[in-house]
Structure formats: C-alpha cells, structure tokens
C-alpha cells in the first residue's frame, strides 16, 4: 500500500484536461434544456434562504433585515460544505463505468465535484452580496477576506469528501447515513441561532463542531463587518490542513482497491 | 522504444455472494478473523510472466473467463496487481470499450472533447482531429445532437473514430472491430490496420482466430488465468482449437 506523492502530482497534472472537462460537464448538464438555465443555481439558494429568513425571523422574533444577513452569512459556507459532503458519497460509484474501463487518477471525481460546487457557491455569494447591499447591509473592505475564507473552506470540504467518497465504495450504507448525519450536524452548527444562545452540554458539543470556525470565517466579515479573530483563523487553518492531509492519505491508500469493490 | 515486462502477475478478485460486508461485519471481522467471510477469492490471472518487445503483435486467446480481459486491463493500469509487477514503457492507448464515457445528454461534438480528454488527448490535438473524426464517423449532420438520440450504429461510429484518431505507441484492443454497415466495417478495418502499423506494440484479445492469425506475430493462450501456450500463431492456435474440442 505504498504511495508516491510525486507520481500522484504528476498524474493529477496529466489529467487536468479531464478534470476541467468534468467540471464543465457538471456545470452545464444540470440545467440543460431548462429555460432559466444556469440562473437556477443563483435563484434557488436565494429563494431558499429568503423563505428561511422570513420564517425564522418571525419565529425568533428577530429583526428581518439583520436576521437575513446573519442567516445568509452562515448558510453560504454551510450549503457548500453540505453539498460537497452529500454528493461526494456517490462520486466514485456514479463513475463506475469509467473507472472500470480506463485508467484515470480517481481523485479527479471528488475533486471535480467540489470544484464545480465551489464555482456555484461563489456565484451565489455574489448574488447574495448584491441582495445584502440592497436591503441596507454594510459592505466594507473586510470582504476582501472572503476569498481566503473560501480557500480554507474548500480544503476542509475536499478533505472530508475524499474520505467519504472512498468509504462509501466499501460501505454502501453510508450514502443514506450521511444525509441524516448532515441534517443533525446542521442543527449542531450555529447557523439559525447565535452560538452564545446556548448553554450547558449542547454549548460544549457545538464548541467541538469542526464546521464552526468556517461559519465564523464568513460571519465575521459579512455580519459584523470585522475580520475574524486570530483564534478562529488559526483553528480554521489547522482543521482544514489536517482534514486535507488525512483525506489524501486515506484516499491514496485505498485508491488501488476501489476498482475491485465497485 | 516501447516494451512491456510482466513478472509473476496475479490478480485476485473477491466474489461477494449476497451483499457487500456491512460496517458491522467489518468491525466484527477485526476481532474474529476466522469467521467465514461473506466473500470468496478468485484468481483471474495467476502467476503470469511475459515480456513484450517493440514491434511485436500479440494476440491473447482463451475460453470465456480465462482471464484475457483482466490481463489486458491490468496492463492498462486499471487493475492493480495483487502480486507481482508490471512495467510498461510507452504511451498506452486504452481502447477497451467503444463509447465508454460518452455522456448521453451531450452532443457528439461535446463528447469528442469530453471523451477525448478521458482518452488522454490534449485540447490542441482534439481541435486538430475534430473535423477528421466527424467526417470519418459520417456524422456531419448530427454532430450537434445529443448522443442519446443517436442510433447504436452512429454511437459506435463516433466512439470508434475518436478512439482510433491518434496513433499510440502501445495499442490494446479488446474485441473492438466496429459494427455498422458493411461499408463502414470496410473503412474501419483499414483504419485499424493503419493504426496497428503505426503502433510500436499491439496487443489484442479476440475469439476470431482468422483475425488473430492475420494480425499477430505471437499468440498467448490463457487457461484459468495461467499461460498454457506462447509462441507463433501456427503453433498456438491449434492448441487453442484442440482445447475447445477436447
């Protein structure tokens, strides 16, 4: 089960053309033959979040404007993370036909999925930004931090997706478990509520949630209009790099056995 | 100069009888290793050693399930050897199945780029060969139609034309002698022959002994994953035919 990092990088570079093709395939395909086409990628999260904002601001008795911005800032990173994780569980299984017929570095399947979702997410972020400005939110230079936040979030999500895409090949039940687990994790992540609204055991549990720093990376600049505190940034860097490291390790260790288990 | 060296290659499959082992079975198995497992082992290729030099035209023959395709896939890198090692020098063209990787929703032209990337062609190469591929497949009228509306003949022609558009150093063919009408089959034969002539090494798997004896300079006979014959076509093909009858 040895692996060779230089060979891995060389193979990935050799397959960059396939990677780009798979990314554009994903972006194009979803909305082929729909009238609004790619606009759905932008409209959908916008409508979804508007509904949630309307419902929960009434439920929590909060000011609609501030709550909307608060919610959007948390939903953007969560939506990206959650779609990468749930969709990556089938990324290898769905490409069985290719994997069994042609030799390709298998990492391109989860990686192309995450990259396509990243493009979606960044575009819907821009739309949401326009909306935030429209309802009177503040926009300042701290927004320059968002690309950095996206980079860390991407590393973290890809790291998890590498583990999950392989694990699902070996244990198919995971694809169903993950959907439920992500639902649970959503409520354990302070997206609808503020973290300091919690106390006791639940607060401790939420504090351990690895997604938390990534939510805060977006929420500080968007909602509070300040840079994230250094402790948040440091923990996000540590979590994203170690997740990526473990993900790569697991993926490359199991990569050769995938084809026998599809 | 291309070459292929195979030393004591074995490829093992696990056969799952009813279901894939669950997470529970997996953890239970960690502590009770002797419990009978849900799968059994099957050696599709067993202890195969061979060396193929530049210029050789090799035909792999044998009964269904003898391990021919598995051996070819191992040479392409799709199956990792369970034991032994493979060393391949030269660019391999993975011509294992025509149209693998075509996306039904995409048009013929988009599929040329998608599938071409999968086959390892660069974008510049694809732009160069695009019009030739379309012309050879006789699909000028339908190239911007999604391939799900293609007839099976059109689908085959596009896949064949694309897969055979660039000359590789090492050519591996798994029974791909194209379908389609008689005129296309004629054209395809010539194209394949040119491709073989331009390649450094050619390996094919086939049940068509006429084809093997005309195309190949060396024939390898596999039986239950092991090599039982290796040599000139006139020596090995009778052995295979005798095996069939006996």
List keywords for this structure.
heterodimer; A: 262 residues; mainly alpha; B: 246 residues; six-stranded mixed sheet; 27% strand; globular
Shape of chain B: globular
What is the rounded Rg of chain A? 19 Å
Indicate the overall shape of chain A: globular
Percentage of β-strand residues of chain A: under 5%
Q: Quaternary state, please?
A: heterodimer
Radius of gyration of chain B: 20 Å
Helix content of chain B: 25-40%
What would you call the structural class of chain B?
alpha/beta
The residue-averaged pLDDT of chain A reads 88
Strand content of chain B: 25-35%
For the termini of chain A, the CA-CA separation is 19 Å
User: In which range does the helix fraction of chain A lie?
Assistant: over 70%
Element order of chain A: H for helix, E for strand: HHHHHHHHHHH
Can you tell me about this structure?
With 262 residues, chain A is mainly alpha-helical. Chain A has 11 helices and no strands. Helix content of chain A is 74%, strand content 0%. In chain A, helix 7 packs antiparallel against helix 10 (212-224). The longest helix of chain A has 32 residues, at 230-261. The two termini of chain A are 19 Å apart. Chain B has 246 residues and is of the alpha/beta class. Chain B contains 8 helices and 9 strands. Chain B has helices spanning 23-31, 68-76, 108-118, 123-137, 152-163, 182-198, 209-215, 233-245, and strands at 3-16, 39-52, 57-62, 83-89, 92-95, 170-174, 201-205, 218-223, 226-231. In chain B, the strands form 2 sheets. A 6-stranded mixed beta sheet of chain B has the order 5-6-7-3-8-9, sandwiched between helices. Chain B has a 3-stranded antiparallel beta sheet with strand order 2-1-4. In chain B, helix 3 (108-118) packs across helix 4 (123-137). Chain B is globular and about 60 Å long. The two termini of chain B are 41 Å apart. The mean pLDDT of chain B is 85. The A-B interface holds A 14, 17-18, 20-21, 25, 29, 32, 97-104, 170-174, 256-257, 259-261 and B 13-14, 20, 22-23, 26, 76-80, 94, 96-97, 100-101, 103, 105-106, 113-114, 117-123.
């Amino acid at each position: 089960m040895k692996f060779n990092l230089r060979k891995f990088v060389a193979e990935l570079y050799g397959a960059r053309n396939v990677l780009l093709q798979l990314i554009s395939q994903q972006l194009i395909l979803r909305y082929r033959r729909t009238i609004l086409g790619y606009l759905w990628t932008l409209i959908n999260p916008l409508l979804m979040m508007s509904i949630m904002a309307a419902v929960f601001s009434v439920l929590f008795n909060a000011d609609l404007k501030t709550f909307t911005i608060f919610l959007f800032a948390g939903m953007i990173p969560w939506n990206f993370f959650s779609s990468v994780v749930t969709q990556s569980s089938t990324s290898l299984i769905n490409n069985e036909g290719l994997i069994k017929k042609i030799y390709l570095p298998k990492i391109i399947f989860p990686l192309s999925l995450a990259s396509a979702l990243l493009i979606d997410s960044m575009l819907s972020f821009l739309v949401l930004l326009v909306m935030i400005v429209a309802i009177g939110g503040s926009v300042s230079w701290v927004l320059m931090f968002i690309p950095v936040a996206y980079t860390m979030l991407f590393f973290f999500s890809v790291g998890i997706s590498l583990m999950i895409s392989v694990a699902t090949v070996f244990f198919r039940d995971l694809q169903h478990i993950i959907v439920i687990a992500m639902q649970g994790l959503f409520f354990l992540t302070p997206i609808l509520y503020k973290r300091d609204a919690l106390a006791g055991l639940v607060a401790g549990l939420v504090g351990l949630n690895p997604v938390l720093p990534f939510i805060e990376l977006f929420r500080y600049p968007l909602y509070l209009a300040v840079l994230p505190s250094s402790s948040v940034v440091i923990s996000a860097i540590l979590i994203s790099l170690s997740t990526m490291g473990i993900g790569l390790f697991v993926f490359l260790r199991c990569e050769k056995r995938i084809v026998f288990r599809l | 100069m291309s070459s292929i060296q195979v030393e004591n290659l074995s490829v093992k499959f696990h056969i799952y009888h009813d279901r894939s082992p669950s997470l529970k079975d997996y953890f239970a198995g960690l502590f009770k290793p002797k419990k009978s497992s849900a799968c059994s082992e099957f050696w599709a290729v067993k202890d195969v050693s061979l060396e193929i030099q530049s210029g050789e035209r090799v035909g792999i023959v044998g009964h269904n399930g003898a391990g021919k395709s598995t051996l070819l896939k191992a040479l392409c890198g799709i199956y990792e050897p369970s034991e032994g090692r493979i060393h391949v020098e030269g660019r391999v063209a993975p011509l294992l199945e025509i149209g693998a990787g075509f996306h039904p929703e995409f048009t013929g032209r988009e599929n040329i780029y998608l599938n071409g990337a999968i086959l390892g062609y660069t974008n510049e190469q694809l732009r160069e060969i695009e019009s030739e591929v379309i012309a050879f497949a006789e699909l000028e009228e339908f190239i911007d139609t999604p391939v799900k509306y293609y007839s099976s003949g059109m689908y085959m022609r596009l896949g064949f034309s694309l897969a055979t558009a660039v000359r590789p150093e090492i050519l591996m063919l798994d029974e791909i002698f194209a379908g389609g009408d008689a005129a296309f089959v004629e054209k395809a034969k010539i194209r394949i022959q040119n491709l073989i002539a331009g390649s450094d090494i050619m390996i094919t798997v086939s049940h068509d002994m006429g084809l093997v004896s005309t195309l190949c300079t060396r024939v390898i006979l596999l039986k239950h994953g092991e090599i039982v014959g290796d040599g000139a076509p006139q020596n090995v093909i009778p052995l295979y035919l005798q095996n069939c009858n006996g």
